[in-house]
Amino acid sequence: MTAFAELTRRSYLSLTVSMMTCLILLINVSFKLIDLQGIIFTASSVLCPLVAVIYLMVLRECNIVQQRHILNQCLLALYLFSVGIYLLVNLPAADYMHDNPAYQIVFEDIPKKFFASTLAFALSFYLPHLYCCMRKTEMLTSPKRRLLLALVGGYTFFSLNFLLLFSHPLIQTFQRIYIDSLMVSGGILLLVGVIYLTSLAILKPVKTALDKESLPAYLSKPLYHYLVSFSVTILLICLACEYRLVSLTDGLILGASGLLFPLTIIASNLVGELFGYKANLRLAIVLILTELTFDLLLMGAVALPAPEFFNLNPFYSSIMPRRIPAGTLALFVTFVGNAMLLENLKYTGLGLNRCSRILIANIFAASLLCLVNYSLLYGGIYSYDQIFNLAMNSWAYKIIVTLISLPIVLGLCNRYHLHKNVTLT
Predict the structure, then answer these.
(1) Would you tell me how many other CB atoms lie within 10 Å of the CB of residue 134?
(2) For residue 169, is the peptide bond before it cis, meaning its omega torsion is within 30 degrees of 0?
(3) Which of 28, 46, 101, 151 shows its CA 20 to 30 Å from the CA of 302?
């Protein structure tokens, strides 16, 4: 715990979420090809070096214990995302979805994408770092060797991911695409290396006033970071299946994203009760920034021109501009509202216990979410009757999940506080 709390800068959380977002975005755009001025390359040739850059920052900013935590969280996020997507896209779809363009936004070949991304990440970053930790080499302490570890990892990550995705079945002009992509990836990594070495030679370490300030207590708790990572992963699963509708029983139709989204509210409840109001607000900000970053990067990747023989997901271009403001507003009113109510209901003078506060806050948050999300997100895509039924079904489902989760949340809170008291004594 002491080693985890020794943060040199307030960067652990942002680095973790950034790497997770890039890895999950990589799964989303695994088969995206970009055609610029006759050069055909994959989106992964840009994202893989970006992951390597974040990995280099992790090696520089965090100690070894924190580095292992970040890599563990990223690997768990890949597992959770792929399993969640695979389950949601295989649920029975609503009948009136099949002729709708939004139905096309469903990921195919999830097992292949998951296998490629996870195996490449493990062999390029996770296992080499574990080996360096076990051997206690100077690779993790020397700035130049850290750079070498990150650059080799980035190159290996891209190559393995590309070969696992495109080698079988062999796509058209495979060799040309690989060489072009390798040039793009290698160019980015080379530029990163030059900038990093130049900064080592010219710039002197600067200790800012922010670094000297004490961190909030909750940022030194691994549990808080794992709850945030869990929430971010669930959010990205929901964003991936935003427009998919599933039919559970006759007449009961729900958005696929709504099936898992209550888990993020449960995580918000735990964060608010265990770590306080400010920790819950930080979670809300992280989720909003993650949604904005993910959607903007995804829209940018899809907007880039693709070769005619491999043009995927043309419907993203019309749907993403609608989803970004709607999703941002929905997340803001849901999580900020939930955090504020959980805190302010303590001081109403009504003598509300923890169970009552969580229930009231969640009902209010679920109502705002359904009102904002479904009216803005589905307007013009489905009829008003369908939107109303979706909103009501989703609201009822979220309330049921809240009621079911209450004993679990209360039990975890009591167990945590009991363990904390025992530790202090």
Answers:
(1) 8
(2) yes
(3) 151
Question: Are the CB atoms for 312 and 306 separated by under 8 Å?
Answer: yes
Name which of 108, 107, 10, 105 is nearest 57 in CA terms.
Answer: 10
Taking a C-beta distance cutoff of 8 angstroms, is the pair 158, 44 a contact?
A: yes
Residues in the chain: 425
From CA 258, how far away is CA 405, in angstroms rounded?
16
* Structure confidence by residue, pLDDT tens digits, 51-102: 999 999 998 888 888 889 999 999 999 989 888 888 887 777 665 544 444 4
Amino acid (one-letter) located at 369: L
3-state secondary structure of 175: helix
What are the sequence ranges of the domains in the chain? 11-202, 220-420
Distances 268 to 7, 239, 278, 385, 388 between C-alpha atoms, Å: 24, 18, 12, 31, 27
CB 244 within 8 A of CB 103: yes
pLDDT for the residue numbered 170 = 60
> For residues 117 and 167, is the Cβ–Cβ distance under 8 A?
no
* CATH 1.10.1760 correct for 220-420: yes
Q: How many percent of the chain have pLDDT more than 90?
A: 32
Half-sphere exposure of 332 (CA within 13 A, CB side): 9
Residue 369 clears pLDDT 80, i.e. is over it: yes
- The confidence score (pLDDT) of residue 286 equals 95
In this predicted structure, what is the pLDDT of residue 94? 63
Assign 35 to helix, strand or coil.
Answer: strand
Which one is predicted more confidently, 167 or 289?
A: 289
